[in-house]
Amino acid sequence: MPHRIQRFRLLLVKEGPSITTTWDRQVREARDVAEFMAPLVAQLDREVFHVLFLNGRNAVVGLHVVSVGSLTAALVHPREVFKAAILANAAAVILVHNHPSGQAEPSAEDRALTRRLSEVGDLVGIRVLDHIVVGDGGAFCSLADEGLLGGEGAWK
Q1: HSE-up of 81 (CA within 13 Å, CB side)?
Q2: Taking the domains of the chain in order of start, what are their residue ranges?
Q3: What are the pLDDT digits (tens) for 94-117?
Q4: DSSP 153
Q5: Coil/strand/helix, residue 124
Q6: Closest among 75, 60, 56, 52 to 25, alpha carbons compared
Q7: What's the pTM?
Q8: % of the chain beyond a pLDDT of 90
Q9: Which CATH number applies to 30-142: 3.30.70.260, 3.40.140.10, 3.30.70.80, 3.30.200.100?
Q10: What's the Rg (C-alpha) of the chain?
């Protein structure tokens, strides 16, 4: 008896309008990203996990919402992060999520996820430059600056 196998085709779809930023093409430090993302995550009542896609010169070429979670967590799987990054031809990514509590201190789960995504990124050849947790009032925490991703050298 014949067996049917489905055929698939992948498409990258640009959604919505472009986002304007004052960056001079390249992302240079975590503060740039935190200031850019703060208005996008302000007043959210749940965690939202974003990924910024960068080209080989650290210029942001896209933004992707990976997960919309609950008050205290957002479910993030490496497959969902890197599927979109691969389709966008990203050379590197920056992970960003908010804490609705307003506190930018990363949790143990945030640190574990960062390590896991960095390992997957190494395997697929897409660098994880940083994971930034955004709080209220301009507060943010860069896990690269804390040394979890190789320190500030991760950005270079």
Answers
A1: 28
A2: 30-142
A3: 999 999 998 999 999 999 999 999
A4: G
A5: helix
A6: 60
A7: 0.87
A8: 52
A9: 3.40.140.10
A10: 16
